[in-house]
Amino acid sequence: MRRCCRWVIQRAPVGSRPGGKRSGAVSDWLTRPPCGFLCHRADATGGPVTPHATPTLERLDGSGKVLESRPIDRPELVIGREGDFALPGDSFLSRRHARIRLASDGAVILEDLESRNGVFVQVPGSVELRHGDHLLMGDQRFRFEIAPPTPSPPSAEIAPRTMELGSPAPAAGARLVRILQDGRDGTACAIGPRGFVVGRSSGNLVLAKDGSLSARHARICGAAGRYRVEDLKSRNGTFLRLRGPVTLQPGEIFRIGTQLLRVVRT
Q: Cα–Cα distances in Å, from 207 out to 44, 78, 174?
């Protein structure tokens, strides 16, 4: 036996799990040895169980430079103005904003702790959008909405009163709503059949004063209720708000408040 890290991966024998529960399969679980030592148990092939590489949480600046880091050496790590990775100077963070969990297979799981401003993961190329999704592009926050089908007006035979004269209702489609810093809705832009581009100097929605946007930053396109957002190789990336817990891929960047973070393995 030798002294090891506080938390270790061990192999459960067939038919057992922690707490005495029965199981018909061999499995791994995360345990804390009370004596502080690790006995190297054999796996199903007779070889020793190899611990997973310790992941590290890094905080980045806008250029990708690492500002600070800490190893994730426990089953879960809370990030926020308070917590295991505290960032008290960011007023856009909740007290307990997000949590990183280590799964038994070594996967790193990110989840939002019902924070006010959410947790956003960088879009890797393009992803499908759902009604109500929130996006970050530069300093801009948007909400994506799919409009329900417009009901047909009643026929003249059954209309109880004179019809109102006006422009015809728009066909069902999608729109992008800009969210202001006070939480109110700003400009709402319809997404046409040729798609919709957001940028600093070119596109359907041009926001020239946002220096963190690229000239052509991102595009939303689709039809028949299925839409995707595509990052147009922007300098600062496009981010989608978490809908639920997600497994982070190595080097994947996420954003909480004004902080850029990523998890790497060393």
A: 59, 35, 20
Which residues face 196 on adjacent strands? 220
End-to-end CA distance of the chain: 24
The Cα–Cα gap between 203 and 264 comes to 35
Exposed, middle or buried: residue 37 (CB in 10 Å: 0-12, 13-18, 19+)?
exposed
- Rounded distance, CA 139 to CA 120, Å? 13
Q: How far apart are CA 49 and CA 2, in angstroms?
A: 14
pTM: 0.74
Residues 6+ apart with CB under 8 A from 13: 26
Order of strands, sheet of 253-256, starting from the edge strand that comes earlier in the sequence:
66-71, 55-60, 259-265, 253-256, 119-122, 238-241, 134-137, 140-146, 174-179, 185-191
Write the pLDDT tens digit of every residue in 219-250: 999 977 799 999 999 999 999 999 999 999 98
* Virtual torsion, Cα 28, 32, 38, 39, nearest 10 deg: -50
Residue 69 has pLDDT above 90, yes or no: yes
pLDDT digits (tens, 9 = 90+) for 194-206: 999 999 999 999 9
Q: How far is CA 234 from CA 123, 138, 139, 142, in A?
A: 11, 9, 13, 17
Query: Rounded CA gap, 181 and 201, in Å?
Result: 22
Find, among 134, 124, 224, the residue nearest to 173 by Cα: 224
